[in-house]
Amino acid sequence: MTAPSKPLNVLFLCTHNSARSILAESLLNAMASDRFRGFSAGSSPRENQQPNPYALEVLKRAGVPVDGVRSKSWDEFAQPDSPHMDLIITVCDNAAGEVCPIWPGHPATAHWGYADPSELKGTPEEMLAAFTKTLLAIRQRLELFINLPASAIDNLSLQQSARDLAKR
């Protein structure tokens, strides 16, 4: 695939921006930062929300940098001076059903649902296993995404291509 002249900006949304969206943002940046820039946000992060420690741990174990990773509200990306998003992907069913802000530039949208590993109550080993399972599921879909042909990520095709990947 020929790299576009500038990376495409992809925003991953979840409710609290502590686990799945953090995993997706960090993975995309580690896998293809020359062609894509990953961001993440939550529709309603809790006050003083922080990334889930298990999410950060599985990213570190996978060799994915976590410097600067933080939880934030999607309002941060709906401002006129925010980075222009090319694609917005919801990664939890709650965020997919919410009324989103009006995004500058009207980016393409898709939903890639994943079970919430932070809902599991178990031993630290069980929690790490659940987060690792989610990380691997996200990685698998991102590998397909970053290897799409250039024609599948042009402005007209991006939304359909991203939505088609949700079926895999």
TrEMBL record:
It holds the Pfam family LMWPc. The keyword Secreted does not apply. It comes from Aquincola tertiaricarbonis. Keywords: Arsenical resistance. This is Arsenate reductase ArsC. CDD domains: LMWP_ArsC (cd16345). SMART domains: LMWPc (SM00226). SUPFAM superfamilies: Phosphotyrosine protein phosphatases I. Residues 8-148 form the Phosphotyrosine protein phosphatase I domain.
